[in-house]
Amino acid sequence: MSWRYPTRNNPGEAMQRLWSLVFLVVPIACSAIYLLAALGVPPLQKFWLPPNYNAGGDSIDRLFVLTHLVAAVVLVLTMGALFWFSWQGSARAQATSTTAHHTMLEIVWTIVPACVLIALAVYQFPSWNENKLLRPQILDKGRAIAQPPLVKVVAKRFGWEFYHAGPDGLLETRDDVFVENLLVLPVGEDVVLQLESRDVLHSFFVPGLRVKQDVVPGLPQFLWFRVEKPVELEMVCAELCGWGHYTMQGRVRFVPRAEYEAGILVQRALPRSGHLAHINPPVTHVALRERRRWPQPTRGVSGNE
Description:
By secondary structure, the chain is α/β, with parallel strands linked by helices. Helices cover 34% and strands 24% of the residues.
């Protein structure tokens, strides 16, 4: 490679070599930022994923890291090639090339990316099965059946409704407990949610659990996860659903089973809400502004830290 300075005979050479250096610096800078963020170096750690509290989220994190590493390698190789050819071409007297195409090169850059994408697709099968297909099971009269949902999540513009199964263990019955914008769940066990939408398309997203599921009107969805320690996490809608989309936020709080059951008893003791009379059957209601009535956690950490 020639590192000579541009000459007066080729005034455009300086600009072309400047762009060559840009092609070289961009992938190096991006890769460095990615690595520092992954290592948690301040202040770049805020650009990385929040801590994962879901047992099934580890496979998602591995897939996330692998996909970005592949993308980083492709970025460096592509921008490095641009730098090389741009720098070398800047010193040529002939500005254009007479080569129209290169059959072997085109075959290679078609087959190699296809193989990489197929490999990534195969690699993600176990994670997809764990988080989307293999729903937790329980024994019922000696027979394994799909675990019923503990809570029905209803998305609406612009908030969340949570219906907890009552003593009968079934949803959509008269003993259900209704809580708005605060989802309290037990730790140390598999939790299954039933997701529904009351109006438009929404998306149930809890970054700290690595779960994100579109909620489609008329199409119930099921989501499951397992958290082993008390924690409170942020929950948002990740699908543009209208002018108040940015306000569609809530909290997910994980507490010990005894604390969870005590909280359910407190909510069941509250008077029924008249403005929810259209819900059949009627349920007990508590709004986010009243969440102080739910017993506060005795231990745990915040997922925002």
